[in-house]
Amino acid sequence: LESSAIFDLQLYMSEQGALVNGALARILDTQDEPTPILGAMTYSLMGGGKRIRPILCLAAARAVGGEPAAALPAALALEMIHTYSLIHDDLPALDDDALRRGQPTCHTRFDEPTAILAGDALLTLAFETLADAPGATKPADNYPDAGQWMQVVAIISKAVGYKGMIEGQMQDLDAEGKILSMEALETMHALKTGALIEASVHVGALLGNGAAEQIDALRSYARKIGLAFQVTDDMLNIKGDPDIMGKAVGTDRERRKNTYPTLLGLTKTERFAHCLVEAALQAVESFDNKAQPLRVLARYIVERNR
Ligand code: IPE
Ligand code: IPE
Ligand code: MG
Ligand code: MG
């Protein structure tokens, strides 16, 4: 697939997405009989989503010559954490959104307490999934060892914690109605969205047994596409089609959010996003064809319409 001249991204994403969805569904199924909280967790986790972070994680394992299957538990954990962050991001106390992934947000479909707790539960389940990964507690052939899994826990927890995604979310809320400098805006985006994307690629490369130089290059790639991802989200909030995106548009302006288009305008923002992609591609220049999915994903991140 990756060596063919024309790489079919749509096919690749639907195959990888199905793999991730199947594995996520199996984890939720093996919980005890469906309780209201499991119902809410399942509703949000299985209710669509592009699965970009898990797909990046698996693609990074592949890019370094590793076996994507070894990284699957991390890919699942990343999507659980991402979904939790969306449930909480949509709460009335944060962005107060009613639509997500083409359906009512968790607190709209259920209620606020349930949505808060469903987010908490998905965050916790992510770390349970890592702890239960093959090789994490007892050696398993061809799987990462306990030390690697602990490194993964360290990387992901730092990325989404109070110096990472949570700090970014705090800065985003604090900046409503103010005008940030370009530098402060970049920092906010790198934290609220970039950190989890960088962690996704980082742990994928680690679990694929990548060499230090490979991991450095991939992290640099991920920082570029992570920023490009949020910059594109900002643009879609202005010019996107809500039916395709499955979420509302115009909300950043309503809430007086700080975004790239508000500071630069749409034309310059689009140019900036494409520059980031070129820089990301340069970072993985020395990789062979196994990195082809990562290259195609980089372009997709700025060309997507959802
Ligand atoms: C949306 O993320 C929130 C941001 C960090 C910009 P995605 O665009 O990956 O959302 P889903 O997972 O596909 O719904
Ligand atoms: C979401 O950012 C970032 C996190 C959930 C950590 P936004 O608030 O800009 O994303 P959307 O537009 O609601 O998806
Ligand atoms: Mg937000
Ligand atoms: Mg939001």
Structure commentary:
It is a single chain. By secondary structure, the chain is an all-alpha fold. 69% of the residues lie in helices and 1% in strands. The chain has a two-stranded antiparallel sheet. It starts with 8 loop residues before the first helix and ends with a helix. One 3-methylbut-3-enyl trihydrogen diphosphate (IPE) binds next to helix 4, helix 8, helix 9 and helix 10. Residues 49-50, 52, 82, 101, 193, 230, 233 line the site of one 3-methylbut-3-enyl trihydrogen diphosphate.
Classify the helix fraction into a percent range: 55-70%
Number of helices: 15
How many strands, what sense, and barrel or not for the largest sheet?
2 strands, antiparallel
Mean pLDDT: 96
Distance between the termini: 24 Å
What spatial order of strands do you see in the largest sheet?
A: 1-2
Task: List how many beta strands DSSP finds.
Answer: 2
How large is the radius of gyration?
18 Å
Order of helices and strands: HHHHEEHHHHHHHHHHH
Residue windows where pLDDT falls under 50 for at least 5 positions? none
Overall, the morphology is: globular
Strand content: under 5%
SSE class:
mainly alpha
Which small compounds were modeled alongside the protein? Answer: 3-methylbut-3-enyl trihydrogen diphosphate, magnesium ion
